[in-house]
Amino acid sequence: MQRRRSDADWLAAAARLAVRARPLSSPNPGVAAILVKDNAVVGRGWTQPGGRPHAEAVALLQAGDDAHGATLYVTLEPCAHRSDRGPACSDLIAAAGLAAMVYAVEDPDPRTAGDGAKRIAGAGTQVRQVRCPAARDSLSGYLTRKQLGRPHVTLKLAMSLDGCIALDNGNSQWITGETARAHVHSRRAMSDAILVGGGTWRSDRPRLDVRLPGLEQRSPDRYVLTRGGAPDGVSIVSSPRAISEIPDGHYLYVEGGAKTAAAFLAADLVDTVHLYRAPIFIGGGAPSVTDIGLSDLASAHDRWTLTDRRQLGSDLFEVYQRRADTRCPKERN
Prior knowledge:
The chain is of the alpha/beta class. The chain contains 10 helices and 15 strands. The strands form 3 sheets. The protein has an 8-stranded mixed beta sheet with strand order 10-9-8-11-6-12-15-14, sandwiched between helices. A 5-stranded mixed beta sheet has the order 2-1-3-4-5.
């Protein structure tokens, strides 16, 4: 007999589905929806490229008549505003005859912000909000943009066991192996924009593109942190704080070098760290991060939480998430 899944189980499944929307859904959030009836999926969808159609509309279209009496699980509260590109999802859901709608995150967009859920409940559909960390994580870029006015920043570091990213002469090819490097390209493909420091750009002239078969068109917009110039096709960011000027995109992937990593950490703008650790020692090489202005070790503790660890060939990959309660006051609101 098939186990009946809980609301949290279905929302977590929707969160996994939402990965398919990232980052192609920009400037809209990457949302996913699953329609369930008699413990079976009758429809599912995720936000399509360019932001339309929305996940809920895709799932309802797929389900057809089976949507009547079903339960909709969606990672983000359905929108309450119409646009010239389509009706409000809350209106579509209200008219679908659903038994229930379960959502994980209230939409911070003031055009919705609770109104979507109220509209659906007003049509006689049972509505409930269920906390789901995976769903919130799947929307981290959108929530960061809406709440903090900037993209979600992932800092990528590839280093030796002793924390070096290059030899003293600057040679850094290659610290990590092929599997880890391919994984980096997959992370680039999930980002709206990628950024390196001016020194890295001038010394290495990195392509900053995606070189995985079938994903070459998913290369992010390229940025350089510098007060100097840059060639055509590369945009300039004058300081870490200026990333708020990056248009539309929800996810920024920062690849270094050490001074750039330090600048983002010192400005308290790193949300996620992707750490690739190769099983080698360099000894006396270039450090992964330069001075970030810490005056005592106490302030460095309890800021980061390990959320993922896996082996990529001979290299170890770790993900650290920044605790929201350790942000500077301007970033907590």
